[in-house]
Amino acid sequence: MKATVTYTCSSCGATSPQMLGRCPVCGEWGTFVEEVSVAEKSKGVRQRSDSKVQKLQDVSVQEDQRLDMHCAELNRVLGGGLVPGSLVLLGGEPGIGKSTLALQVLMQLGATTTLYASGEESVKQIKLRSERIAGNPENLYIVAETSLEKILEHAKALKPEIVVVDSIQTIGTEAIEATIGSLSQVRECAARILQFAKETNTPFIIVGHITKEGSLAGPKVLEHIVDTVLQFEGDQHYMYRVLRAQKNRFGSTSEIGIFEMQQDGLREVTNPSELLLSSNREGLSGISIAVAVEGVRPLLIEVQALTSSAAYGTPQRSSTGFDSRRLNMLLAVLEKRIGFKLLQKDVFLNIAGGLRVNDPAIDLAVLVAVLSSSMDIALPTDCCMTGEVGLAGEIRPVNRIDQRISEARKLGFSRILIPAGQKHQPVKGIQIVEVARVTEAVRLLFKQS
Ligand code: TYD
Ligand code: MG
After folding, report:
1. Which of 255, 267, 324, 405 falls between 20 and 30 A from 109, CA-CA?
2. Is pLDDT above 80 for 45?
3. pLDDT score at 198
4. Buried residues in 414-435 as b, exposed as e (16+ CB within 10 A)
5. How far, in Å, is the centroid of ligand 1 from the Cα of 129?
6. What percentage of residues in the chain have a pLDDT greater than 90?
7. Where do the H-state alpha helices sit in 286-400?
8. Which residues neighbour ligand 2 (ion) by CB within 5 Å?
9. pLDDT at 212
10. Domain parsing of the chain, residue ranges
C-alpha cells in the first residue's frame, strides 16, 4: 500500500502537496499539518449501496420522534431534543466542562440505555466524576477505549439509545495509519461514526477539543460531516457556561443554553438575568444595564467599563465578552459625535459573568458605561437600555423589542431606553423612552448632575 504525504490546513481544510507557512485559502499562519494518506481503496468509508431514487412528493416527512434529553437547556439548543441517528459535535476548550455535561446528561436519562465511551479517562476516573454529579444512571454503560472499531462493536452489541464518544481526538481507527489525533484520523473516525449512526439510527454525541484560537482541531472537516455543532463556552474563572448551536440541521442556530458549573456538576440556569445583575450597583460609575437577546431569550446584562489615564504612550483598549473592534468603533463615535476625548485614556470593558455577547443591541449600554466611568457619574439604577449605535451616532432599531421591554419590567426596572420610532406594544409598569441619537440618551441619563 503506497502512502502519500499531503499537508492540510487545520483551520480550513485546504490541502497542498508541500508544507506552507501561510494558508493561501484562509490566510492563517502556521496551520498546515502533515497528513499521511493511504491508497484510496482502503481509505474512506464504504459507499452505501442501498440508495434509491424516489419522487420528492413520495418522501414521508413524518419526523422521527426526538429524544428528550431531560435537560431543558440542551433540548432547546438541539431544537427540541436529539434526533435519532444524528451526529452531534460538542466542542469547547479543555476544562470547560464538556465531559461533565455529556456524562451528566446520560446520567439523568434514567432508564434509557446509553453508552459513554472515553478515550481520555479510565473507568475509575469516570466513576469518580459521576459520584460528584446527581443522577440516576440505571442503564448507563461506560467503557474506556481508544479504538473506534471496538467502540462501535460495543455499541452494536449493547444497542444503546445514545452514544457519547469523548473525545474524537483520542480515538483512532485501524483502517488508516495516521496517528491518533491527526486530521486524517479525526476525519476518518467521524465519517465512520456517521455511517454507523445512520445505519443503526443511533445518535452520537462526539466531544471535540478546540484550540485556544477557537478552532476545532480538524474543524471544517468535522463541521460538514456532523449534523449539529454545539459549542460549549465560558470563562474558566466564572461559573457560567453557554451552550451555543453553531450549526444545526434540525433546528435554529440562534438558541443558547446557560449552565452554571457547581461542585456537583452543571446546573441549568433558567433565569439568567437575575443572576447576571449584581444587586449592589447603587452609586457605582461605569456600570450600565443592557437588554440583550441571545437566541430568542432576552437577557439583562451588566456592562462594566473603566477608563483611566494612560500610563504609557499608547492607551490600552481591552474588552472581555464584547468585540473589541466594535468597542473601538463606539469610542470613535463617542469622540466624534459627542466630542468626548478618550485619546489619552485606557478603556477596559467587561461583560459581567464572563458571558460573550453578540447582540449589537448592547452598543448603547457599552457607550454609556464608558461615558459614566470617565465622567465618574453613576447611572440611575432603575434604568436599562437597548439599541444598536450607528456611525453617525444614531440609535438603530433592534429585534424582539417587546420581549426586551417585558423582561426589563419583569426584573423591576422602571425605565427603558429604546430606539426612536420602533413600534412596540404598550406596557404598563415601565416607562418607555424613545431615543434617536446617542447625544439624546446621554442628556437624559446624565442630566441630574
Ligand atoms: P471537564 O468536564 O473535565 O472539562 P472538559 O471535558 O471540557 O475538558 O470539566 C472540567 C472542570 O469542571 C474541572 O476543572 C472541574 C470542574 N468540575 C466542577 O466544578 N464540578 C463538577 O461536578 C465536575 C464534575 C467538574
Ligand atoms: Mg473531557
Report:
1. 255
2. no
3. 93
4. ebbbbbbebeeeeeeebebbeb
5. 8
6. 54
7. 324-337, 363-375
8. 99
9. 62
10. 1-37, 69-268, 275-447
